[in-house]
Design goal:
Layout: H1 3-11, E1 19-20, H2 23-29, E2 43-45, H3 50-63, E3 67-70, E4 87-90, E5 97-101, E6 106-109, H4 115-124, E7 127-128, H5 141-147, H6 154-157, E8 164-171, E9 176-179, H7 192-196, E10 204-212, E11 214-215, E12 220-227, H8 233-241, E13 246-253, H9 254-263, E14 276-283, H10 287-302, E15 308-311, H11 315-326, H12 328-332, E16 338-343, H13 349-363, E17 368-374, E18 379-385, H14 392-412, H15 437-450
Parallel strand pairs: 2-4, 3-4
Antiparallel strand pairs: 1-2, 5-6, 6-10, 7-11, 8-9, 8-10, 12-14, 12-15, 13-14, 13-17, 16-18, 17-18
Helix pairs in contact: 8-10, 13-14
């Protein structure tokens, strides 16, 4: 059957107008936020029901057509890039919140529900969905599950997998599975729900998810603290964690903040120039807690770990302080950054940072390097900015040559080459630095069970 005939048959499986093949649509839906690979899908299909997803998967099995899932396309590992003629399955029209249970504090979502949509729904019910990151206004729940998205609140609330009570998935064979049935306690064998979380669509597609909610936090308060060196950041974290239950502890360099301030959207937090900054957040539910925070700040200043700082006194100031951190990714995107999303256990962060910093300084002397990350959970984002005089291909090739040393250091510290962005295509050649050969063999075997014909997002995680 010709490609044109295949597309005509695909059109019969969904509603009229829900298969696109025009060039602008192929370009828009065939990529994510990465710029490493050129999008080249053959078609975009928009299912509106679980039955239509099953029909698409069975059609793909019959004709050996590869499928790539597409959510908000905000990923940073090329897991949602269709670069080899695949059909993109976009979940934009499966975007409804189907059910809310106030006693269980759960919400049943279709995969195309926007993260911010779920956050706003929870707020309307007096509750809270805590998984949060800069792309919350466009990322989708299905994509969050596929990458096990983390973000800025992990130190208190954990990753996406902590908030998935249950889900329905369509496997690579077209079967519909209902996983865990929203239970808190369920000791009936393998928890296949956890296999699909972080699988990047390589086992099947999430078509419905039951997400847990939490109580709404009270009087969230942020502090931005300036530190003289990298070694001071972790003592500050330890000092505050010993006194407060932190909801966030973020880290960024002076170069990162300078890029954000240059936009003119947000003021500097204070006048003192510092090489590194920490942003921490906590619930100031009482005056006593606020006083503990100020006393801890003073202790950190006395120890020389903090040079200056500020604590939010209003909702607006809280938002402005957070913008210093949340606007970094969007701001530096202008420079086509080469991103490394790496992690180690929190106790190893200082030594690990020094080792990585030495590699960066010796190998990228002419490149601008921007550090930031969720340092409170051991996750660091290393961003190397492309000079104007280098082409994208030349720049990425130079960065790739240094990856070996960066990832050897990650391996030395028993860390992860991808803390929260996933593996996709950008990190698949480096998977062996975080996973052993037997582990990878088991992962391949699991994929073969759920996706016997290899049609589900092929070439992602491993070749």
């Amino acid at each position: 059957m010709t490609n044109a005939a295949l597309i005509e048959e695909l059109k019969t499986l969904v509603e009229p107008g829900k298969v696109l093949t025009d060039a602008p649509s192929l370009e828009a839906y065939g990529k994510d936020w990465t710029k490493h690979f050129a999008p080249a899908p053959s078609a975009i299909v928009f299912p509106k029901s679980i039955e239509q997803v099953q029909a698409i998967v069975r059609w793909a099995n019959q004709h050996k057509v590869a499928l790539v899932p597409s959510g908000g396309r905000t990923g940073l590992s090329a897991a949602a890039v269709a670069a080899n003629g695949e059909v993109v399955v976009a979940f934009d029209y499966m975007n409804q919140i189907l059910e809310f249970n106030e006693f269980d504090r759960t919400v049943v979502c279709q995969p195309g529900v926007i993260t911010e949509q779920l956050q706003n729904f929870a707020e309307e019910k007096g509750l809270y969905y805590p998984v949060d990151f800069a792309s919350a206004g466009s990322s989708q729940i299905g994509g969050n599950i596929g990458t096990n998205a983390g973000g800025i609140k992990v130190i208190r609330y954990g990753m996406t997998r902590n908030w998935v009570a249950g889900m329905k998935v369509v496997t690579g064979a077209g079967d519909l599975l209902e996983l865990n049935r929203d239970l808190i306690k369920n000791a009936t064998g393998y928890d296949m729900r956890q296999l699909f979380i972080g699988a990047e669509g390589t086992l099947g597609f999430v078509v419905e998810a039951t997400m847990r909610l939490d109580r709404a936090p009270k009087n969230l308060t942020a502090m931005v603290l300036g530190s003289p060196d990298l070694d001071s950041i972790m003592p500050v974290l330890h000092a505050f964690q010993s006194k407060l239950d932190l909801t966030a502890f973020e880290f960024f360099s002076d170069k990162a903040m300078a890029k954000v301030l240059a936009r003119g959207d947000v003021p500097a937090p204070f006048e003192t120039d510092c090489p590194f900054y920490a942003l921490l957040e906590f619930e100031a539910a009482s005056e006593e807690i606020a006083n503990d925070a100020l006393a801890t700040f003073e202790h950190c200043v006395e120890q020389g770990w903090v040079l200056d700082g500020v604590m939010s006194q209003s909702e607006q100031q809280l938002q402005n302080l957070w913008k210093l951190r949340e606007y970094i990714s969007e701001t530096i995107s202008h420079w086509t950054p080469y991103k490394n999303d790496i992690s180690v256990t929190v106790s190893k962060v200082p030594a690990f940072l020094h080792d990585i910093d030495a590699i960066v300084e010796s190998n990228y002397p002419d490149f601008e390097v921007v550090w930031f990350g969720h340092i409170g959970d051991g996750n660091l984002h290393l961003n190397i900015l492309k000079p104007d005089n280098l082409s994208k291909d030349e720049f990425f090739a130079k960065c790739a040559t240094v990856n070996k040393w960066v990832f050897e250091t990650v391996q030395k510290y028993n860390g992860s080459i991808s803390a929260e962005h996933g593996v996709g295509m950008t990190k698949r050649d480096y998977l062996g630095y975080s996973r052993s050969e037997p582990e990878i063999a088991v992962m391949r075997a699991i994929k073969a069970v759920f996706d016997p014909n290899g049609i589900m997002n092929p070439g992602k995680i491993f070749n």
